[in-house]
Amino acid sequence: MTRPTVLPPMLPTVRARPFDPPEELAGDRAHEPIRRLRYPDGHIGWLVTSHALARSVLADPRFSARSEFKRAPVARPSADPFYGRTALPGWLVDMDAPEHTRIRQRLAGRFTARKMKDLRPQLDRVVDEHLSAMAESTPPADLVERFALPVPSLAICELLGVPYAERAAFQRNSATLFSLDVSEAQAALAMDQLDSFLRELTEHKRGRPDDGLLSALVADGTLSTEEIAGVGVLLLTAGHETTASSLSLGAFALLSHPEQLAALTGDPSLADNAVEELLRYLTIFHFGVPRTPLEDVELAGRSLRAGESVTVSLSAANRDPAQFADPDRLDLTRRATGHLAFGYGIHQCLGQNLARVEMRIAFPALFRRLPGLALAVPPGEVPLSTDMGFYGVHRLPVTW
Ligand code: HEM
Fold first, then answer.
1. Are 383 and 143 spatial neighbours (Cβ–Cβ below 8 Å)?
2. Nearest CA to ligand 1 atom 27
3. Short-list 116, 115, 146, CA closest to 131
4. Is the CB of 350 under 6 A from ligand 1?
5. Domain topology for 99-288+319-399
6. What is the pLDDT of residues 234-257, one digit of tens each?
7. Fewer CB atoms near the end CB (10 Å): N or C, the chain?
């Protein structure tokens, strides 16, 4: 590989404003939609920043998602769960076709928009219970702890058939996995504990089936216990941290854009559109998604070698003016469809319909039940989770 003489910069991660990606991230996107990127291990790879090129890389089977080849674009002692080695059985986000197809096919039918719509009455109840408890208590409170985390946690537990009473351990382990500040040993322990928990639970379901997804996969008989447990860990961790971040960061964004909040509360039919725009604007996968070409590839006039790491920046793609007019403006009335907050291609988020239903219910209900909702601290004091794999807030102190 010919190395550039001047080392290219690393992935910019420092934000000047809480809701905008780092300014240098976009670079000269229109003329250079892919550019050189230095990884923390010294490897020189690539960064994709335009919407069009991000989509084409993510839809291109020459780019692998296998964890063995993945490198994290940001320094983290623990690294992502399986980067550089084989993932857990069932960990489909790190697999290529046909292994990926085999697992995803067993799951896709359980996450359709219709199936998720059927969950609405249950989700309405969960949202209502949490907001009633808040309304009856004395402010201030942390919206993450009281609302944004428990609602998606309960939803994914219900869907999988995981006892919610076990949440203390799996929420702690899941937070450890996505933190940039833990050691490799701590991350490995958290993963082991989650995996053992899901394996035991899967075995338990063999004798006592319920109507959750784990039992359905056991009854289906296609996947091994190890694969069902791996799928379970992935769904459990991806299924609550991500939506929790979107809910709390979304509430912070709405409170910081009163005119947009007024539009939403004035017209609840805006909720579906508002959710798409919040997903686009916030793009919580702030370090992008990694891919690796399995062969040499010519892309937008650049020659990529097999094995070089590619980071597809979903944040940069979702702020591409060639795709979204005035992209840095939060505008709940725009048509934000086509955003890449859920990725694209065969790995496009399996849980996106669940996340959408949760957000569509949660945002209008939050501001309806707590009409005086406001930040309880100055905006600059909200602790942002720049140290996590997903962007969001650690806490959102609110009053009402
Ligand atoms: C707002 C919330 C969410 C966001 C922004 C989000 C984002 C993403 C993104 C960007 C990917 C693609 C990763 C890649 O291409 O490498 C992905 C994949 C995935 N997500 Fe989500 N996600 C969310 C919620 C959920 C939920 C609620 C679940 C579970 C019920 C879930 C389960 C998954 C799974 C299993 C995959 C891997 C799919 C595959 O490889 O085929 N996600 N998600």
1. no
2. 239
3. 146
4. yes
5. Cytochrome p450 (1.10.630)
6. 999 888 889 999 999 999 999 999
7. N
